[in-house]
Design brief:
Blueprint (H helix, E strand, L loop, with lengths): L5 E4 L3 H11 L5 E5 L10 E4 L2 E4 L5 E2 L4 H8 L7 E2 L6 E5 L2 E4 L4 E2 L2 E2 L2 H6 L5 H8 L15 H9 L1 H13 L11 H4 L1 H10 L2 H8 L9 E3 L5 H10 L5 E3 L3 E6 L3 E5 L4 E4 L1 E4 L3 H8 L4 H9 L2 E12 L11 E3 L8 E6 H4 L8 E9 L11 H16 L7 E12 L5 H12 L5 E3 L9 H23 L1
Parallel strand pairs: 1-2, 1-16, 2-12, 7-18, 16-22
Antiparallel strand pairs: 3-4, 5-11, 6-11, 7-8, 9-10, 13-14, 14-15, 17-20, 17-21, 18-19, 19-20
Helix pairs in contact: 1-10, 1-16, 2-16, 5-6, 8-9, 11-12
Length: 459
């Protein structure tokens, strides 16, 4: 294979999308992936007829970048929505309580379902309804999710809505994660309408016939497989660990083992904590930013049962767990209630999620301890009888980037410093966005910037 124009460090969804978008422009990319497989946290396995996503299992409809990528890769006809009923539950007082209908991220948009829900006490409901009268914040300073939700809706909404749902999506601390970085639309709603509830009502958003998510019959891993298949042969080198970046026009990427690769541009798409050592001798300021991005570790435990072993109806997608409930689980997902074709006939597949910012030492526990803790919690909640017929534990050390208060300002300084190194780029969840759609959108943007740089360099 000819020498690459661009070396991409990291073969997760951001790195693969960058490579694919560059190859489509006639640019020769080389992806260095230290693992033996591509995809990062996207991993799908097929075990005894079960299709198990060890990481993300869905693509968000509201952010269409990932769905558009799937369609461009020829997967459009394979996309399908979640099965109805499309609802979720919150654990409160040891009982699974349905999230009110007609809500956006749990925030009520109609009064009827909100009044009748058991999720909040009457004082809590009254305080949430008073959000319509809370004056908007005049300062543009960043604030945490907990600060924003507490200020607008009260502390009960923080405990049973913001913490398990908004912060839980990111496995983070509700009092540290940044509203501006993660839920900027809610900030805009406050500033444009003076009330989040008023803003959501004014949108008059029709219910999507497909719900909020889509997936693929073979799991989200199909998206990674399609990306890899669409790349020119030899684009990805597995078991290749970058050790340092040096030079400029061309850059040199040193690998563990002594090999050095030369390229006109370099894209950093590994986790920020893994990127920092590559930049220590190159630009201490860039390395310092990368080290400043916290990461949380999580575990996913998949359990397969005969359906008649589970007494709970499992109608909906699953549940989230507030820390106030003091259980081992952050959340649980009823996979075969969400997606078709995930288990053999007469079987059920569920997943439990553990760890995150609230349990930073979760991965100190053995696989069997994680499996047993998940089974015990699920047994109590779902009336499970007996042992699973299939079980699988997925460990994700330092896999969830935490965009804490001030992340946007720090990222702006990082991006400004990057401009001092023409041909050096960064993408991925440690930098911009969070989740598959954000990573795909940012990777395509960065690929365009890389192509533009290479084009101007050759003029």
């Amino acid at each position: 294979m000819p020498s690459p124009h661009v070396v991409i460090i990291g073969g997760g969804i951001a790195g693969l999308t960058t490579a694919w978008a560059l190859a489509a422009r006639g640019v020769r990319p080389l992806v260095l992936e230290r693992a033996a497989r591509p995809g990062g946290v996207i991993l799908t396995e097929h075990i005894d007829g079960f299709t198990i996503d060890g990481g993300p299992d869905a693509l968000l409809i509201q952010k269409p970048a990932a769905l558009q990528l799937a369609r461009e890769l020829g997967l459009g006809e394979r996309l399908f929505p979640t099965l109805p009923p499309r609802t979720a539950f919150v654990l409160r007082g040891g009982r699974l309580v349905r999230l009110p209908e007609a809500s956006f991220l749990g925030i009520p948009t109609r009064i009827g379902p909100f009044i009748t829900t058991d999720l909040f006490s009457w004082p809590g409901k009254i305080r949430m309804g008073l959000e319509l009268l809370v004056p908007k914040r005049l300062s543009n300073d960043d604030e945490s999710i907990g600060s924003f939700m507490g200020r607008r809706f009260g502390r009960e909404a923080v405990t049973y809505l913001a913490e398990p749902l908004l912060a839980g999506i990111h496995a983070g601390d509700v009092d540290r994660l940044s509203m501006r970085a993660l839920f900027g639309r809610l900030l805009e709603a406050e500033h444009s309408h003076g009330s989040v509830i008023r803003a959501l009502r004014s949108l008059k958003m029709p219910a999507s016939p497909h719900g909020a998510f889509m997936s693929l019959p073979g799991g989200v891993g199909e998206l990674v497989d399609a990306l890899v298949a669409a790349l020119p042969a030899g684009t990805i080198r597995y078991g290749a660990t970058a050790a340092a970046v040096e030079g400029a026009g061309p850059y040199r990427v040193h690998l563990e083992g002594g090999e050095a690769l030369e390229a006109r541009a370099v894209v950093l798409s590994a986790p920020a904590w893994a990127t920092a050592p590559l930049l220590d001798g190159f630009d201490a300021g860039l390395a310092a930013f990368c080290r400043s991005v916290p990461y949380a570790s999580t575990a996913t435990v998949a359990l397969g049962f005969r359906r008649d072993q589970i007494g709970h109806p499992m109608e909906g997608s699953g549940f989230v767990v507030p820390r106030a409930e003091r259980t081992a689980l952050m959340a649980g997902s009823w996979i075969t209630s969400k997606w078709p074709m995930r288990a053999p006939e007469g079987m059920a597949l569920i997943r439990g999620f553990l760890g995150g910012a609230g349990d930073p030492y979760i991965l100190d526990r053995s696989d069997e301890e994680l499996r047993r803790a998940t089974l015990e919690e699920m047994t109590a909640l779902l009336d499970i009888r007996g042992e699973p017929v299939v079980s699988r534990v997925y460990r994700w050390p330092r896999a969830s980037a935490q965009h804490e208060v001030g992340h946007h300002a720090r990222l702006a300084a990082f991006d400004a410093r990057l401009t001092a190194h023409p041909g050096l780029f960064a993408t991925g969840s440690g930098f911009r966005g969070s989740g598959i759609p954000d990573c795909v959108a940012d990777a395509r943007k960065v690929a365009g910037e890389v192509a533009a740089f290479l084009g101007s360099e050759s003029e």
